[in-house]
Design a protein that fits this description.
The protein is about 25% helix and about 30% strand. It is of the alpha+beta class and about 375 residues long. It folds into 4 domains: about 80 residues, SH3 type barrels (Roll); about 60 residues, Roll (SH3 type barrels), CATH 2.30.30.40; about 60 residues, Muramoyl-pentapeptide Carboxypeptidase, domain 1; about 140 residues, Pnp Oxidase, Chain A.
Length: about 375
């Protein structure tokens, strides 16, 4: 009975959605073009994952909202990024080649004759999808290419308006480099107007944080995100975006102290601001006595603290050896000062779950509150 009611609810929901202006025409379906695609509860990367959808799965398309398809997949309803779904309503989709030497074949088989060898970044027009093969147009030549060799543009975009890649040079490249520098992914000295390895690496890092294909090629989606004033991604907030959703609780006395051992170098990310800096643990028994690694790290920490040192507790995430753990810290330099060159006159304290204060061997309720706050914010 429950399954029947759920199916009925989904049917009414689809009917309701399809009467709205953003709805896709009734009966339209799409095919997933990459493996393990996340279906989410909302049309953004913050939405919780409903289910992972396999490669070449068929979806019923309800609507298109800001680059996300609202879809039905079996008994699930949710959102999937539109660039990960092939759904051709206008007669063409565009794409670009991911690697040099990708081949356009005369038939949908790697044993077929080669129509043309393609270059990285080359734009194609896609006519249809058959399994793992796309039927594409490259200039005045037609043929088949594996879907894994391409990145599809957003639906409704018949051409790639802008495409910047390795080896290019000019004002468009320089403009892109300036934006990368503003966001902290590139140094000012690297604004040369030439798209070299440094620029490609910076673009790839930006794409990874934004949830795009991280190929280092600045296509229209990447450039739109780069110039979008509502996109707050910077190098300093990169770690926040990478680890959110993976945060765990770890008891200080049940593995926490051994994991974050004395002498370890790790990354601290402030939950409220999203800013990150590098830290070293040099001591402590009941919690981690720590210090910023460099003067630059101290500057980020002071920015987190609002420009002045404070004993106020802050929810943080500690990332070390591939794990991110909920923690708490204050921002007040005090007592032992193992490194004078970092502009931090003393050390600060980091607490994990159930850690204690050295002065009285008791838990600090304010630190433990922030540990749990950090866990709640980071597990989503």
């Amino acid at each position: 009975m429950k399954k029947f009611l759920y199916t009925l609810a989904v049917a009414f929901f689809v009917l309701f959605i399809c009467t709205n202006a953003n709805a896709v025409s009734s009966g339209n379906y799409g095919t997933v073009v990459t493996d393990d695609v996340n279906m989410r509860t909302e049309p953004n990367l913050s939405g919780e994952i409903v289910v992972k959808v396999p490669l070449y799965a068929t979806l019923e398309l309800i609507s298109l909202e800001d680059g996300w398809y609202h879809v039905v997949y079996g008994e699930y309803v949710g959102y999937i990024r539109s660039d990960l779904v092939f759904a051709d309503f206008s007669g063409t989709r565009s794409a670009y080649v991911l690697t040099d030497g990708a081949k356009l074949y005369g038939m949908p088989s790697q044993d077929a004759y080669t129509v043309k060898e393609l270059e990285v970044g080359q734009a194609l027009k896609i006519r249809s999808l058959t399994g793992e093969w796309l039927y594409a147009v490259a200039g005045d030549e037609y043929g088949y290419i594996l879907s894994s060799e391409l990145t599809l543009s957003k639906p409704g975009s018949s051409t790639l308006e802008v495409l910047l890649k390795n080896g290019m040079q000019g004002d468009d490249v320089k403009k892109l480099q300036k934006k990368l520098a503003e966001r902290g992914f590139l140094s000012l000295a690297s604004i040369t107007g030439y798209y070299g390895s440094e620029t490609r690496k910076a673009v790839a890092e930006f794409q990874e944080i934004c949830g795009m294909v991280s190929d280092g090629i600045a296509g229209d989606e990447t450039i739109q995100a780069m110039y979008d004033p509502n996109n707050k991604v910077t190098h300093e907030t990169a770690q926040y975006n990478r680890v959110k959703g993976t945060v765990e609780l770890l008891d200080w006395f049940k593995g926490g102290s051994d994991w974050l051992h004395k002498g370890s170098y790790f990354v601290v990310t402030d939950v409220n601001t999203g800013l990150s800096f590098n830290v070293r643990r040099f001591g402590g028994w009941y919690h981690a006595d720590s210090e910023p690694v460099t003067a630059a790290d101290t500057a980020v920490m002071k920015k987190i603290a609002g420009g002045r040192w404070s004993w106020d507790r802050r929810a943080i995430w500690v990332t070390y050896k591939g794990r991110t753990v909920a923690a708490s810290m204050h921002c007040m330099p005090h007592m032992a000062n193992p490194t004078s060159s970092n502009n931090f006159d003393g050390h600060f304290c980091i607490h994990l779950l159930n850690s204690k204060v050295h002065a009285n061997s008791k838990e600090c309720p304010r630190h433990q509150y922030c540990v749990n706050k950090a866990y709640a914010a980071g597990k989503k």
